[in-house]
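Hey everyone, long-time lurker, first post.

I ran two proteins through the pipeline my lab uses and got sequence/structure pairs for each. Pasting them in order. The first:
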Amino acid sequence: MSKKWKVENLVEEASDTEESDVEQDEERPLKSSDDDEDELSGLDIPEAKLPVLRSIGSERGEEAEKLAIREELSALTFEELQKLKEKIGSKKFNQTLIGVKKKPQVRTDFKRANPNRPREISSKSRRIEPKVAIQVPKVFRSDPRFDNLCGEFHEKKFYKNYDFVNKMKEDEVKKLKEELREETNPRRTEKIKYLIQRMENQIRSEKMRKLEEEKQEEEKQITIDALKEGKSLYFATKAARKERNLKEKFDSLKEEGRLNQYMAKKRKHNAQRDRRHMPSEDY
């Protein structure tokens, strides 16, 4: 019979009889630490077999000491182990062999001396308390351009009220052109040229918008006059308007002497457009 099997058998027996022997051991009177050596003196076991156990008595040692005690007990016979158990008591024998059970940890309630201090929480606790939502007053921001409470947008009134901006742009272009003649820094020169070009494009687009608005007013007035005279109404189509605009554009270019230049540029543009659709030499 192996020594390892003896110790494992005793561990199982000790765990089964531990609860039943607790009541009997509690009735026995407690012994002082001075009587620890006397507990093992009456046994017929040689001292060479139990050096560690006789040195520490019945107190619980470190992990290395427990392993050493188990190795000593594994070298004993069943008769010697039974005598040792009867001598020191089943409770101490079981504690020496399998260790003392740990008491369940009691949860401590961390309370604050002052409610304004932060709460102390154990690092092992994974309980997450629900956060209280703080109601923040909502700020309403309104943009008058898209807010119906600020009225409706009237395009004609808007351009009429802010017509002075175009006059300011024309004055600004004149000042920039004068500054461009005296400027020597190339980076500053490029920036001024960009500003002049941008503002001239804005002025030109505004003039075209005004011309289109005047044409619409003329058409509207023609329709009103026709109604007064009892004639049939005439509404110009998109094609008729496009043809009329081209005719007016050609007339204005001819008066300014830029018609030939415009036509040469238009031919070049059309030639480049047609070249894209022509088959390549590879085919």
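...and the second, right after it:
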Amino acid sequence: MGRCFNHKFVLNFCNFLFLLCGTLLIVAGCYLYTDNKRILLSRLLAAPSEQLSSLPQPLLYYIALGLAVAGFVAVLASVLGLWASCLHTYCFLSVYFLSVVVLLLAESIICLAITLWPHCLGISLDEAQMVKALQRNYGVPGQEQFTNAMDLAQTRFGCCGMRSSLDYDTSLWRLQSYGQRNWPVPLSCCVLANAPQPLAFLDPKPANETQCQALERSVYERERYTESCLVHLDSWYREQYGIFLAASLVLALVEFSVLLGIILTCTGIASRKARLDSSLSSQTFSQKGRRRPTAKSRQALVDNIYESEVQLRGQGAGTCLGQSSSRHVSSEDFKELYVQPRDLYKQRHNTTFKPIASDYQTPTRSYLV
């Protein structure tokens, strides 16, 4: 019983951790869904991919929804696990085991895909492709999300262009005059006076617009950002991936502990059933062993009482005379059984013993032996 209790305690503790992880996943998905800047920056990661860039929302938007759904499924699975631990049956434990295995496999596939084959998911930070994406999409009508994401990256990281500010010289934004004709770079590349404001990237106000938009480097280098944004985007992507990988590893460890708890519980059920079967079999065996000596002792008692005391007189007389072995049994044959105990009682207590008339009544009917 102690081992069974320990197995159930381990399983319930692992279920509680799994429930806690599922709740944290739901909270993380909701938080990521409300983090508009983080979601907007993820548009730049999927820019080289035509499939992902054609999606109505950035990549992290769907990841946030996926985290919330995964957390909800984990909560349901943990509730099923708590129910299975209470019922303590193989059926519900097997269903719980399979659901945890499916979640673990799906999580492993996603992590391996992001780690080993990011190009399969459309995530690429190749310099040439990112520069082409900038020159093709920035400032173009219908690509407002990419434009806002690039302005956010330049305002947040203090950079200009994917490789340098020269990327805008051959972009559609400047060649087709989508921006100001006398602007070599967007206003988000300038040092902003309203940089502390959270929405400064949507309405950039340069501290010195004239020097920022100058063509000589000696003039604009103090009022314009000159670093590459691709380096900052790569470090930002690695930071987000590190957070996702750490959370995935913690969840995987919890799922492995849940699987171990299920296995221990199943083995505890099997061992408990084996102990019950062995105890039942030993009890039945002991009961049979007790019944047999009791029956034998009773038979021996009957033999000792009746066979030694009752001596049928004239047992061999009939056979010697050639008569039949059967004869009538009379009350004289049982007289010794009544007379001898009374004589003994009389000798010990010196009392007279009056026989009862019914003791020597002859039976009204004789039996044939």
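Reply from user beta_strand_b:
Welcome! Quick read of the second one: Confidence is low (pLDDT under 50) at residues 305-329, 356-369. The CA atoms of residues 314 and 320 lie 10 Å apart.
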